[in-house]
Amino acid sequence: MADITIDTKDWEKLSIKLKRKYNHLTDEDLAYESGKEDQLIDHLASRLHRTREYVVFTLKKGLINIDSNRL
User: Fold this and answer.
1) Is residue 46 included in any domain, yes or no?
2) Which of 8, 12, 49, 67 has the greatest number of C-beta atoms within 10 Å?
3) Inter-residue contact 5 to 57 (CB < 8 Å)
């Protein structure tokens, strides 16, 4: 079960934040389907060379103030 639930509308904004911070991520890396948070987290952890916990923390941090440009 995913540690986080991401709304599709929020994902659009959050993916832009992630792309700004990690400019090596591609559109394919940031492809997301509702309900497949675990796959997204595992894929991002692999691409960012970070732990799953770090990715979940980063995603949650980005969702807290979704309208801000900061991640």
Assistant:
1) yes
2) 12
3) no
